[in-house]
Design a protein that fits this description.
Its EC number is 2.1.1.199. Belongs to the methyltransferase superfamily. RsmH family. This protein has 333 residues and is an alpha/beta fold. It contains 13 helices and seven strands. It has two domains: 242 residues, Rossmann fold; 81 residues, Orthogonal Bundle (DNA polymerase, domain 1), CATH 1.10.150.170.
Length: 333
């Protein structure tokens, strides 16, 4: 994945700014001499800060466009920086053979530079092909928009974008594509705005739908869950994991992963108590959010949440989606 999963309303293009950077560095400290996996490299903001603090970094990203940023860090920091092209869902595989890893940092979602590049098709504010593929392969957003049945499309928009008017939007899309395929970002954005209207001061009406399509195209929730369990397999006792997420659905997954008991059903005191699983994560922090100074510098940070924890001694769990609150599309709307 890339870096910033953010609302676009009122946003202007600009340089990539790492979100909650000081807080992430503090969560992983001390950094001198540590080996850290940056599972979502993007433009390299976290990696550069970690390297400057004396750590070694194994950086991972599936987006081919990040390579120039990786090459710049490789030149500047040489043997302390390694870049591996690939998905962060397999970060334990990508980091194998590099020595013991002391920490992992993940920054979930789409990056500022992806949003700001019109031809990537992530932004409803910029004319471009309706693409949204982070790795440039597989089904595009246009493929989904032009092929899904109305009910399936409505379920997707509701489950992944929490779009309450998903049925109305899906019906408008299906009606429009009978004349011609929907091929561009602005075409879809105008169609959604016409279908559900827009109130002054509200976010653009296409915000949630574009989020849902991007998540579906890139299997973002599945990637996140796989990455969390990969970090659990990779890190030794005492290793640190820090995760920055950008909307409530992602944050819920991370919160329940660190503390599974909060996602499970309450036990009745009148029934035999179920065996309690050993804790895999301790020193779990409460949600950390950007302060006023950071929000003034970077409005795109406004929905960011950081959670971090320390790896306990218990053996890693098998990967499981159970109890994490991962949204499901089927029958969701």
């Amino acid at each position: 994945m890339g870096k910033r999963s953010l609302p676009e309303s009122g946003m202007a293009g600009g340089p990539h700014i790492p979100v909650l950077l000081d807080e992430v560095l503090a969560a992983l400290a001390p950094l001198e001499g540590k080996r850290i996996v940056d599972g979502t490299f993007g433009a390299g903001g976290y990696s550069r800060a970690l390297l400057e603090a004396g750590a070694s970094v194994i950086a991972i990203d599936r987006d081919p466009s990040v390579r120039p940023h990786a090459e710049a860090l490789a030149e500047a920091f040489q043997d302390r920086f390694v870049f591996v092209p690939g998905s962060f869902s397999e970060l334990d595989v990508h980091a194998s053979g590099q020595g013991q890893v002391d920490a992992v940092v993940l920054d979930i979602g789409v990056s500022s530079m992806q949003l700001d590049t019109a031809e990537r098709g992530f932004s409803f504010m910029r004319e471009g092909p309706l693409d949204m593929r982070m790795a440039g392969e597989g089904e595009s957003a246009a493929d989904l928009v032009n092929s899904l049945e109305a009910e399936d499309l409505a379920n997707l928009l509701y489950a992944y974008g929490e779009e309450r008017k998903s049925r109305r939007i899906a019906q408008a899309i299906v009606a429009a594509r009978e004349t011609a395929p929907i091929e561009t970002t602005t075409e879809l954005a105008r169609l959604i705005e016409k279908a559900i209207g827009r109130k002054p001061g509200d976010a653009h009406p296409a915000t949630r739908s574009f989020q849902a399509l991007r998540i579906a195209v890139n299997a973002e929730f599945e990637q996140l869950v796989e990455a969390l369990f990969a970090a659990e397999r990779l890190l030794p006792e005492g290793g640190r994991l820090a995760v920055v997420s950008f909307h409530s659905l992602e944050d819920r997954i991370v919160k329940r992963f660190f503390d599974p008991e909060k996602g499970g059903p309450a036990q009745s005191r009148h029934l035999p108590q179920a065996d309690v699983e050993p804790r895999r994560w301790v020193d779990v922090t409460k949600a950390v959010k950007p302060g006023e100074a950071e929000l003034a510098r970077n409005p795109r940070a406004r929905s960011a949440v950081l959670r971090s924890a320390t790896r306990a001694a218990a053996a890693a769990r098998p990967t499981s989606f159970k109890g994490l609150g991962v949204p499901t599309v089927r029958g969701a709307a």
